[in-house]
Amino acid sequence: MEKMRMESVDMTEKNIEKIESLFPNCITETLDENGKLTKAINFDLLKQMLSKEIIDSDEAYEFTWVGKKAAIVEANKPIRKTLRPCKEKSVNWDNTENLYIEGDNLEVLKLLQESYLGKVDVIYIDPPYNTGNDFIYNDDFKLSSEEYLEATNELDEDGNRLFKNTDSNGRFHSDWCSMIYSRLLLSRNLLSDNGVIFISIDDNEQENLKKICDEIFGEDNFLAQLIWERAYSPINLKKHFSRSHDYLLCYAKNEVYAINNGLKRSEEADSRYNNPDNDPRGVWQSNDLSVGPAVEANIYPITTPSGRIVEPPTGRSWSLSETAFINKLKDNRIWFGSDGNGVPRMKRFLSELKKSGITPMTIWKYTDVGHSQGASQSLKELFDGKMIFDYPKTVDLIKRCIELYAKKDSIILDFFSGSATSAHAVMQLNAEDGGHRKYIMVQLAEKTDAKSDSYKSGFKNICEIGQERIRRASKKIIEDSNRNIGTINLDTGFRVFKLDDSNMTNVFYSVDDYSQGLLSNLESNIKSDRNDLDLLFGCLLEWGLPLSLPYNSEEIEGCTVHNYNNGDLVACFNENIPDSVIKHIAKKQPLRAVFRDGSFANSPSKINVGEIFKSLAPDTRVKVI
Predict the structure, then answer these.
(1) Cβ-count burial of 467 within 10 angstroms (0-12 exposed, 13-18 middle, 19+ buried)?
(2) Which secondary structure element, helix H or strand E, spans residue 162, and what is its range?
(3) Strand duo 569-572 + 592-595: pairing
(4) Across the chain, what does the average pLDDT equal?
(5) CA-CA distances (angstroms) from residue 547 to 85, 95, 99, 115, 206?
(6) What CA–CA distance (Å, rounded) separates 148 from 155?
(7) What is the distance between the alpha carbons of residues 570 and 563, in angstroms, rounded to a whole number?
(8) pTM, 2 dp
(9) Is 482 helix (H, G, I), strand (E, B) or coil?
(10) Helix, strand and coil in the chain, % to nearest 5
(11) pLDDT of 436-465, one tens digit each?
């Protein structure tokens, strides 16, 4: 019977498998740190396979920094951790499809690799801007000042500086680049083929972030660098300029498949269309028929209904060939003005627009998506006049990102969720258009300052602020909707999970390390403080099942049997499970079944379980933990 790994996926192994499928000749073998044979890549041969010329030089254009390779290794490294359900913190646990995950986002992203691979349509993140404050993410690849100096050859063999360095600016940027690089590498895997990521940033790291995203997502998948007008009045104390904007970098997983829904058409935009000639095709706008530079073949005279002869302006031509113009004229698509004496213009019908929305511009004004001060004020009002979080983004800003690229049933991910503005935006948009979008919020439980309003209000960490913001925002959205449009069906709940160490004891070994002698010496490989739900959701992560689906539990002959999403997985973690219960589970013919290793008294009992499933549910995959 197959044993579960109980650790996150090894991304290095996955990447080697992908390369092997394309270039099997580039795969070789090497000894790992334990002396075992393992697959490896012949990188010199792979480089040659990807080049039209003979490679004899290491010179290449690349963006790098001290710690970049370590960041890649860190992103690919598997971890033995899990996500533990926190029903007591959750809202409407049994029915919601939203998730709120407490923990370091690097490790959480690793754990989500199987369950949400290719399932997220929109990611929005607002990472630390690197303004000079330390970040809370204590990654393994961060370097001390001494390590940085040694890596950049700024220390001699005796540990002395080779030249005077007045600041630590290099390490300052390197740490930030390593922090964001590993997380973006993992997040890209979660995007669907038509998925898009938006990243808020300011001038401190915008240039570096653009280069990192070009590398991870590909330059061809760069969609826009948006400018958000976050301030509406200058700060006169600034010496040179009062910065009034931030950026949003926007990249697609694959630009070919990304679909921009456009902005919702406003009454003001539609009011520009009218129908002065009572055309049965409805209201229309007219556009200039001339284009430049001139196409010689499209320069010809046109006679207006009034008899006046007109030609395109100097240096321009008509946008249509003469034949095409005649066809448009016959179809009543050319407008000469109400008196029939004007320069010809092309009629564009509102009913024939290729997409219902308006193509967005790259400058987003505060009049359209709000500003920082307004966001702070709105959050303050939500929390009874107390300022519990600094510099939140506006709901309208994130809502616009979502509505541009998400479908009505999309999953939205924010792994720097802060005060949970993204969750607020998802609920608000669902209330407005009847959508059923789901969110996944990820946030480290960073402690609040003991002197802050948030701490004095009872919020000991940022996660508590975010979860309470969701509760209050959902209540307000429902109240506003009931008042304005009537009762709505809105998912206002969320399941809370907390990142924690593995469910397995400290004597847990990897699958390859197990032997029959070792197993016989272990009374239980599961920690005593873990319950059935901990084990169930730990199995979901490894088996690649979403964490938001419904499940039920039933008692059968003193054993608790969990049925996840009507047979996607059935689990029983009792010890010494009788055959009658095993048969009851097998008769359900689930896709997957899982038991704890201690569920069986001995090896013959375990073999018997396998035989029962072969007989009653031959297609069920059975594993033990």
Answers:
(1) buried
(2) none
(3) parallel
(4) 89
(5) 10, 12, 8, 8, 34
(6) 9
(7) 5
(8) 0.83
(9) helix
(10) 35, 20, 45
(11) 999 999 999 999 999 999 999 999 999 999
